[in-house]
Amino acid sequence: MRAARIVLVVVGVLVMAFGAYVLVTTVRPARIWGLATWLLGAVVLHDAVLSPFVVGAGLLLRRTGRRLGAGVLVVVQTAVVLGCVLALVVLPEIAAKHHGQKNPTVLPFDYTTRLLVVEGVLLAVVVVALVVGVVRARRRTAPLVASTTNG
């Protein structure tokens, strides 16, 4: 286990060093600060918005975990993570399209509609998973044989 951690740390450091080398050799110095600002904003957005939301949703779902199956919880958590990450990736395109661009072929699609459609599909998957989970939970709690009285 210790050897695997050391290998992972060394590989991580090498990848970061390679990324820094590529950054310095391919990006103009005037653009590095804009990139650094964007990366800092992404970290803050991840730590301040995405992570607490996913953890909170996970905690709420775990409370229902005794009644719903683990598969339902996995589907819901996966949909929450995918929806959040997709929104983080697509929102800059939506903002860039809103502000306008010099070349209209750079952002040719309606990203707002596409994001809403995909998020709606994820929501539908979550609703179906929850309904299936609730139906299965009710079937499990119902007695298999009706109680009878001998009297």
From TrEMBL:
It comes from the Bacteria. Keywords: Membrane, Transmembrane, Transmembrane helix. The chain crosses the membrane at residues 7-24, 36-61, 68-91, 111-135. This is Uncharacterized protein. It comes from Curtobacterium subtropicum.
